[in-house]
Amino acid sequence: MRIAGAAKLVVVIAIFLLTFYVISQVFEIKMDANLGHIFARSALDAAARSTKPPRYKCGISKSCPEKHFAFKMSSGAANVVGPKICVEDNVLMSGVKNNVGRGINIALVNGKTGELLDTKFFDMWGGDVAPLIEFLKTIQDGTIVLMATYDDGATKLNEEARKLIAELGSTSITNLGFRDNWVFCGGKGIKTKSPFEQHIKNNKDTNKYEGWPEVVEMEGCIPQKQD
């Protein structure tokens, strides 16, 4: 009887040890699998972060060199969506900011610091050109001037207004017409014509919208004014 009892005890112990071994092996495999999954996911996340394209100021396609201001701007879309002007990652004018309107939209920026000085819009369809002319005459040397049309920016323009804008570096202002889309970045005191200008004529055969051409967009790096 004692031998039989001892044998049963050995069997119980053996079963317990075998069960413990199997459980420990399964648990270790699961732990290894979970850790492997965690490490693999971390590696994938890191790879995704490393391949994500960088974001530059104002969402432009490349970074600007030192002593340059990043900018991006767009004209209005027909008479529905207003223009947008961004400098150094700061949206200066947009429909969301509720500071744009029909006609020519203008943002003035300090050429040394990149800080916003003023924003205005002038209705060139139902308004008067005189306030625009007076505003243009007050712009100080060294000021960056950004302009974008919305709906119609040309009907009330006269020769004096066009000349003042041309002196800021614009080339297209001389033939800007009814409902043309136009964006421009120049400066007071500029010695040459600005390279930052886009213009699309209003043409019923090519217009994207009924009565209006497609939106024009432009981005770039404005040289900082040096003393």
Automatic annotation (TrEMBL):
Domain of life assignment: Eukaryota
Keyword Acyltransferase in annotation: no
Family membership noted in the UniProt record: Belongs to the FAM3 family.
PANTHER family xrefs: UNCHARACTERIZED FAM3
Subcellular location: Secreted
Pfam families: ILEI
Name used for this protein in its record: FAM3 metabolism regulating signaling molecule C
Native organism taxonomy: Eukaryota, Metazoa, Chordata, Craniata, Vertebrata
CC annotations in GO: extracellular region; Golgi apparatus
